[in-house]
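Dear H.,

Thanks for agreeing to be a second pair of eyes. The structure we're designing against is below in token form, covering all 128 positions.
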């Protein structure tokens, strides 16, 4: 059975090794960081197919240009682009249809949750 002095020496050696490892790890990470390339502005994209894959960009068919999506607004304002002519995410689906389809899907999910809750409540009620 090892003595307390040997055990204490082993623990202190392990602690010193762990601290040294952590110090080297943190210093190494700081040296390996590279400078980031600035993001490409949305205005540099010249067609819908190159514009909409970027979440920050919005394509407008009325003006045929790619602009930054106005993140301060939930929906892009009409002065920027009419909803029927705005594309975000994919070119084949206009923003108006996207909003309507998302609302329908959310409504169906909420309805399904409501029906499930009603069914669970009915099953738990004792029958007379």
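And this is the sequence the design step returned. I haven't edited it by hand at all.
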């Amino acid at each position: 059975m090892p003595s307390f002095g040997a055990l204490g020496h082993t623990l202190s050696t392990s602690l010193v090794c762990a601290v040294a490892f952590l110090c080297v790890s943190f210093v190494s990470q700081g040296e390996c960081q590279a400078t980031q390339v600035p993001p490409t502005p949305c205005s540099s994209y010249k067609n819908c197919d190159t514009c909409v894959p970027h979440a920050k960009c919005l394509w407008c068919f009325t003006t045929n240009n790619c602009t930054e999506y106005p993140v301060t607004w939930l929906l892009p304002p009409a002065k920027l682009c009419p909803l029927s002519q705005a594309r975000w995410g994919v070119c084949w689906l206009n923003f108006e249809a996207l909003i309507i389809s998302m609302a329908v899907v959310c409504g169906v999910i909420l309805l399904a949750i409501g029906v499930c809750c009603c069914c669970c409540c009915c099953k738990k009620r004792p029958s007379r």
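Two observations from my side: Residues 42-101 form one domain. Helices lie at 4-32, 48-51, 95-124.

Warmly,
E.
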